[in-house]
Amino acid sequence: MLAQIDTKWILLIEIIYVLIVIGVCIRIIYDTRAVSKALAYVLFAVFVPVVGIAFYFSFGINYRKRKIYSKKLTVDEKLARRFREKIAEADRNVYASHNPSIIQNKDLYQLLFNEKTGRNPLVPNNKVTVLKNGEALFPELIQALKEAQSHIHIEFYIYEDDAIGNTIKEVLIEKARQGVEVRFMYDDFGSRSIRKTIVKELRKNNIAAFPFYKIRLMPVANRINYRNHRKIVIIDGKTSFIGGINISDRYINSGKNKVYWRDTHIRVDGPATYSLQRVFLSDWNFSSGESLGIDNTYFPLYPLNEKATANMQVVSSGPDSDLPNILYTVIKAISLAKQEILLTTPYYIPDEALQETLIIAALSGIEVKLLVPKESDSKIVNLACRAYFENLLRAGVRIFLYEKGFVHSKTFVIDRTLASVGTANLDLRSFDLNFEVATVIYDENIAQQLAIHFDEDCQNATEIQPQEWFRRSKSIKVTERLVRLISPFM
């Protein structure tokens, strides 16, 4: 009799568990936009009892449409409307200027100016300075910070408590004492080492410092899945910095670090700074609870520099955007190429659309070159990246493995007339989970500079020879493809 009761309870528990699994699978399918990612979560939930479901609820729930971001979304809409009104005329004028780079890529401009992708304006008269590695960026940044008169806005994924981190901290404190408004925002996961040190010192000196999306239980926090990966500095609403470089000594190749760190940042002097300011203020309002808006303090009117000829659009994306705007930007730019595509990324774990777009471009006779690190900072990520190479190589894509150190740049150059520098890697995390930002630069001079840097980097890389790659052992290929199955979780 007791055995029958136990059997009934076991059967009941099994039925309840099956119903839970079915419910979770329905939620995954409904809530996850990417098919490959949805399939991976479903398989994990079905074939890894309990753990698979727990993993999904810890890391996989799509919060983009939930109340967690509602305040930021509301602020974004208000800022966007006022921002468009402020520089709509400049956008119309530059689009009508018959610039060859803009004409050739007008479909990209129209994509980014669409209401659904954020109506990102095309702004003229920007001076863009390409900064190669931390040893070029940090002196330029520090000098610009020292010259600030009105305000300094800083937003970084990684800010470390080291020499360069403390040097910049001291500059910020000095500027605050001089009456300059300083706002400091950091990702609570990426910059966790400064929570009890630099952040406390900044606040002690009357500098507003807030984490983006505060994490309270670091070891189990779901929120580490939604990271602010942006790296932005805005000074007086006129000068800005954006790119792949974080505030850390590792980015300075002084001979003290074991690994040479290759990265790219840009300095922007001109009205494209307005676009980066908008991104910062939206993030700041969400993090701080303030309601800063568009006014002459943060969006000052100043004479345009006619000698500054770079036309730019700034595009952002993240869990708060309805569409993967930066992914769409990359795919559209690739599709517009006529001769050459140069891509640099530290991590290549693409979604299916990006992978197929590159394959189509190569099969169409376009020279496609992809530069990635020979060794990633994660062995499992390295395996996942390499699983995508074979189909690219068969289509004619040339893949270069950077050997001098670790290449961390996030850039593309199309036909040496269009370029992009930003914070997003070519991976699923950057396209779907992280808060990211990128610049699109319609300027042949900047595109040529970045193309030259790409060519120089390829001299410090080894090109994969397709036939040798295809002859690798089956065990290596199987391992890579197994790891590829979990790439949606990376």
Topology:
Elements: H1 2-31, H2 35-47, H3 51-60, H4 70-95, H5 100-104, H6 106-112, E1 123-132, H7 134-146, E2 151-156, H8 163-177, E3 181-187, H9 198-204, E4 208-212, E5 232-235, E6 239-243, E7 261-262, E8 264-269, H10 272-288, E9 310-317, H11 325-336, E10 340-344, E11 348-349, H12 352-363, E12 367-373, H13 379-386, H14 389-395, E13 398-402, E14 406-407, E15 411-414, E16 418-422, E17 426-427, H15 428-432, E18 436-442, H16 444-459, E19 461-463, H17 466-470, H18 474-485
Parallel strand pairs: 2-3, 3-4, 7-14, 10-12, 11-17, 12-13
Antiparallel strand pairs: 1-8, 1-9, 2-5, 5-6, 6-8, 9-18, 10-15, 13-19, 15-16, 16-18
Helix pairs in contact: 1-2, 2-3, 4-10, 6-11, 7-8, 11-12, 13-18
Helical fraction equals 40-55%
Approximately what portion of the residues adopt beta-strand conformation?
15-25%
Give the CA-based shape: globular
What does the radius of gyration come to? Answer: 24 Å
Total of DSSP H or I helical runs spanning 4+ residues: 18
Measured distance between first and last alpha carbons: 50 Å
Strand order of the largest sheet: 4-3-2-5-6-8-1-9-18-16-15-10-12-13-19
Task: Report the major sheet.
Answer: 15 strands, mixed
What structural class do you assign from the helix and strand content?
A: alpha/beta
Oligomer: single chain
Low-confidence stretches: 63-68
- Would you tell me the overall average pLDDT? 87
